Each structure stands twice: as structure tokens, then as C-alpha cells.
């Protein structure tokens, strides 16, 4: 196998990474604590000394996930304001109208979500 010299550091780094992962996984398996099987009180879940209520597999309301996704969506919007804030003088009036259009689209989306009741927790 005839590899160019530029590939050798990449292969060494990949080998070190795979070796580190293998050693970490094997070390955790053999050196880590062993749990006893069974339904002992020691293996039960506790949160700050309060007894568990219900099952951990209890489904969440879809409103929770919908609100989380909407938060991420509207939060990521802020990232797109940074380039405009840094270069707003260079963008001029055309850039201002582009950002205004961007904000208007997100406001329309926000009002749509609001009117559809996605942010209303009481329903």
C-alpha cells in the first residue's frame, strides 16, 4: 500500500482516537461498579429523597415538545441577526429591508402558532 505522506498523521490520529474509545469502554466495563440484580431498595430511583411517583415511561404532553421546538426555532432566529448587527452600515437600506422582511416572516409565523393555540397550556 503506497500512501502519500500527508495521510500518515491522519491515520495516526484516527488510530489514537479509536484506541482511546476502546480503552475507555473496556476500562469502564471491567473497572466500573457492578450492580446487583433484583428489586432491592438500593436499586430504586430516588430524587432528593422523595419517593418516585408513577412510571418513568409516562408520556409527556405533546404541548411540551411543541413548545420546545418552537423555542429552538425562534431562538435560532437570533443567530441570523448577528451578521446584520456587525455589518449593518455596509448593508445599507437594502439590508435593512431584508432584515425587516425576515422579521416580518417570523412574526407571521409566531402569530400563526399563537392563533392555533400551540402556546396555550390550558387546552
Task: Describe this entry's structure for a reader.
GO terms for molecular function: NADH dehydrogenase (quinone) (non-electrogenic) activity; NADH dehydrogenase (ubiquinone) activity; quinone binding. It is a multi-pass membrane protein. With 123 residues, this protein is mostly helical. It has a domain at 60-117. It is built from 4 helices and no strands.
Provide tags for this entry.
single chain; 123 residues; mainly alpha; 4 helices; flat; EC 7.1.1.-
Give a brief rundown of this model.
This protein has helices at 8-31, 62-79, 81-86, 88-115.
SSE layout and pairings?
Layout: H1 8-31, H2 62-79, H3 81-86, H4 88-115
